[in-house]
Task: structure prediction
Amino acid sequence: MSNPKSNESGQQKSQGGGQAPQTAITPTRADNYSEWYQQVIKAADLAETSAVRGCMVIKPWGYAIWENMQAVLDKMFKDTGHRNAYFPLFIPLSFFQKEAEHVEGFAKECAVVTHHRLAPGPDGKLMPVGELEEPLIVRPTSETIIGASFAKWVQSYRDLPLLINQWANVVRWEMRTRLFLRTAEFLWQEGHTAHATAEEAQVETMKMLDVYADFAENFMACPVIKGKKTDGERFPGAVDTYCIEAMMQDRKALQAGTSHFLGQNFAKGSDIKFLDQSGTLQYAWTTSWGVSTRLIGSLIMTHSDDDGLVCPPRLAPAHVVILPVLHKPESAAAVLEYCKKLAVELRGMAYCGRPVVVELDDRDIRGGDKMWSWVKKGVPVRIEVGPRDMEQDSVFMARRDKPHKEKTSVKRAEFIATLTTILDDIQAGLFAKAKAHREENTRKIDSMKELTDFFTPKKAPKDNEQPEIHGGFAMARFSMDVAAEAKLKDDLGVTVRCIPLEGSDDPGPCVITGKPATKRVVFAKAY
Amino acid sequence: MSNPKSNESGQQKSQGGGQAPQTAITPTRADNYSEWYQQVIKAADLAETSAVRGCMVIKPWGYAIWENMQAVLDKMFKDTGHRNAYFPLFIPLSFFQKEAEHVEGFAKECAVVTHHRLAPGPDGKLMPVGELEEPLIVRPTSETIIGASFAKWVQSYRDLPLLINQWANVVRWEMRTRLFLRTAEFLWQEGHTAHATAEEAQVETMKMLDVYADFAENFMACPVIKGKKTDGERFPGAVDTYCIEAMMQDRKALQAGTSHFLGQNFAKGSDIKFLDQSGTLQYAWTTSWGVSTRLIGSLIMTHSDDDGLVCPPRLAPAHVVILPVLHKPESAAAVLEYCKKLAVELRGMAYCGRPVVVELDDRDIRGGDKMWSWVKKGVPVRIEVGPRDMEQDSVFMARRDKPHKEKTSVKRAEFIATLTTILDDIQAGLFAKAKAHREENTRKIDSMKELTDFFTPKKAPKDNEQPEIHGGFAMARFSMDVAAEAKLKDDLGVTVRCIPLEGSDDPGPCVITGKPATKRVVFAKAY
Result:
């Protein structure tokens, strides 16, 4: 359906036919949302699939977004008293089994190391030899291996709280993968903490959920609902799982971060004990919490448009791209010099605690192609400088959050003076737009028929036709019946995303079972 | 021989007997260098072994050193035009075999993933199931998997040079491991670049060697010799391997970083081709270069003493520790307040591009234990503040590079004004001391007898006795004879560390074979 090659030189006709506006990404969101997502990643040069099943290559532009996310989150973790450490990639099978629900939750998707050498086999080809006494699991998450260290580190109440974070790669052998959203290997951070009381561990769990919500809303410009997972969606081995849920442009939900109160389950499995102030030996209370490169998928799907990536300024790999107009030989050198000086001046400025990042594109390619390549990469502010602009000491500015033809001539000094305000304005605008989208597509629903209609396309898609966009967040009462939730998933592909922490109290009959319910929850289809 | 518990409360008698000075680390360097190294790591809380064979846990204090190393190196890489990206953890066996020497070099120490699920076996216990069609190697280095991406990314000379770096974990199934120096899993960065000509790739290889030398000398305060490896010590698959070699306090050499000119070997294996300006299809020329958490081992062994870690200020997890003297109840609150204000003021200052990091230790433990815990952790500057110091608006300062009893009373304002100068002085002093040590233990050697004597202990160690320290760097002529080098390794445990890039030309007879040689090389025992 799509022809990736056709994107190379920028603007293309959408597939809608004669009257549709031209777009840089084919297909458009309306034509085929899922394929549009892949094409945005390709056009912005963020990542690609690799020869290793389900593992992605994160390309420099995509990795730069991750580095910016890491820098902000790492500071937030340190400001809340956490310290980074590093634990083994491999988990002995016996460790992994210390928490029964946990091993059951991950056993079906584990990469298992069984040998430690290669040697020529009978046919002369290399094969694995040196079988390990005990197989090693490539960590899908590190509760059990970190628990083994915590058991050594924690002896007395004086050693608590123990507040640790790890930046690492993890592997979950997913069968259906999609770049950033679901890959066999992904990058993440996992916080692991131990506390003397249940209350302290619960406070920590909620504190880190708040950190994630703060990051999502104020840096990713993604509005999120903070909530608790139902029993069916809990992390394997946790007592309670909390999450932040965001709505994508196709109205599906995406879980952007989770924070787990683990009770004493893992402390008992790993033997994390301490002497309390009265001299009694007790099990510690633990938490874990994580966000991953999945956030990049969320960022893409929240803001991008039919011209490619739209990146919130606070996480953008570059804030400004300067495009010198160099086609007149007599002025080219002077224009380039003018642009270089401007770049140096901008790079001396700061935006949100990091230096302003400027790309200066002096490649010898067609101006249109050059401009479109940066539109597709989502750089917040583009400026073009030609001989006449230079003479007038002005720049021709365009914003990624406005139509690409909307350009303004601004005096150089004014541009410099207002740049950070413009970036803040773009950041705020993206958040407001995403929030309005969520509100428009959130509905209170009180009957099963209405719920079914909400999540059912009006007409079945024909061949070559994409299903129409429908649904969103249905706020409906739920009696927390696990079987009813499972049936809903089978029937409609809809799950309870979370029980919102705020404003969800509203007693009445459950939308599915009719039994008494106390809260409205978020029902949605999800990534 | 050593009793780790005995270190807990600081200063201990060395094992030398009655007259020896007391030290915080048992055994001392002179008593047992190798065990001293382990005890410094334990006392400074840097790392520990894990339940997974050969894999270490990097504890927060050790990881903070790594984070500081990463920040400096990452900036150096970006300033030289490199961008970060991320490639798969797993390498299909078939990829790994694309370069014949390469696979031979790593086949004996590979972690191999063969299955992707766990399920109960006949005995009810979990076992690996879901055998993979092709085994996956956990990357020991990424030339072949990154080469597969480079082959896609490089089409024309316009795509070159391609300058990529990756921060990652790698696994080499070493049989004899030692914390930081040699572990089955370690953290590193690996630069991978592709160029249009051999010359450009060679320039890149040397440029990154210079970056490593700059980092080692100016941040780690470790003097290094830049040189080229002999054929016997080349990276498997490389044309030329360059390295930086440092001398540890036991006079052994440690390879602290390598930079490889790979020629077209890996480009041919991975099919990295480009159309040059004349329209001819050519193989690219590639390089790779890396440093790892091994650097932390080098840092420890270069500077630390019998009281524990000595950390160069530019990489120290904390620059200053403030120790309030709180044992008098009537002044405790005021002293603590005074110290907190001082900490805030110091944290507002910068040293070498990062904020000054201050620890304020108000734990309710014995003053001596408290002081010794920070000596052992290697914090460059300690200050004690008691009621009298506070009254005089002064602090009691000690430097980690001076004897622990050498303390000076300094006015608060003067301390603040001179702190960065003091840190620079410590940094410079550590480098000068390490350089003097290397020079004292480097000798020009011109005969095999002298070489043998230089590397042979004068007397054999008796039971419970450590071998005396001997040897160092022997600068001797070598004819580059691979067999002679192998024999020397068998006979004396000595290898050619490198052929120095500077000052090594000195024609004459080879110290081993007597054949004509053109250069003096560095012979040494090595980690």
User: Anything to note?
Assistant: Chain A touches chain B through 60 residues (CB under 8 Å).
